[in-house]
């Protein structure tokens, strides 16, 4: 049985990937976490994973986690509180790439990104960093697959929860205009990565652009209205400038630039390929129907 290591498994998307691999049963799953005593790590251990300590920003535990492994999944994190979030994440990724090369990992699947700054002249540091990491992995000859993750349905429960705008009226602040936006449920990312790791011969050296649905923001709003009546949802038609100015957090400009990138360069994501990898991939309407109570709870917070 092949040994697959999930680095940073206490956070998403790593945790979902680890759980999907465990559910598949075709791998010996090792999860590398910053705190082996955390509830998430204990949950993964109880599910059958081997739990090892690891820190994304240093070599601590990295050699031990990768020793004897054949495959690996990782997703670097952009820490916008750092003085230089871009370089910090790139260094993190290079460290992992070098260790995977040293240990002869036969297939690395990672959350990738695209060169936004290079192509359009404005930064989206999370994407730019991941693109640089992918370039470096190619330079050192790692056999890899990058997974490009679009907007997550679950974001409607957190960062992009619709905002009250009147009695039973909610507005969605996503600056996409009329341009359709690709999306997927976080719960489907893990099974897709598992399918890729099980089919290395097909996916090594390629990019997998995930998408389960592709709708303009107003259609996301109409879907929410259909399932959550008498509540009504609308696209606020917010501009990128207004979005950045109103965003509370360090990453406002970068997130605004992410939507601008998606508007200027709509991804050519292959839905048929997605459904081949995971036949049960959920459309947005299916996800809303299944998560109605969670969405209402998020709205009422």
What report would you give on this structure?
The structure is a single chain. The protein has 301 residues and is α/β, with parallel strands linked by helices. The protein contains 14 helices and 13 strands. The protein has helices at 14-24, 39-46, 62-66, 85-102, 116-120, 125-139, 186-198, 200-203, 217-228, 240-246, 252-264, 271-277, 284-290, 292-299, and strands at 2-7, 27-33, 50-53, 71-74, 107-111, 144-148, 151-152, 163-166, 169-172, 181-184, 207-209, 213-215, 232-235. Helix 4 packs parallel to helix 6, helix 9 runs parallel beside helix 13 and helix 10 packs antiparallel against helix 11 (252-264). The longest helix has 18 residues, at 85-102. The radius of gyration is 19 Å and the shape is globular. The termini are far apart.
Mean pLDDT: 94
Query: Can you tell me the overall shape?
Result: globular
- Which segments are poorly predicted (pLDDT under 50) over 5 or more consecutive residues? none
Strand content: 15-25%
**Strand order within the widest sheet?**
3-2-1-4-5-6-11
DSSP helical segment count:
14
Number of strands: 13
Amino- and carboxy-terminal Cα gap: 46 Å
H-E order: EHEHEHEHEHHEEEEEHHEEHEHHHHH
Secondary-structure class: alpha/beta
Helical fraction: 40-55%
Tell me about the largest β-sheet: 7 strands, parallel
Give the C-alpha Rg: 19 Å
Domain NmrA-like: 3-264
Protein name: NmrA-like family domain-containing protein 1
Keywords: NADP
Family: Belongs to the NmrA-type oxidoreductase family.
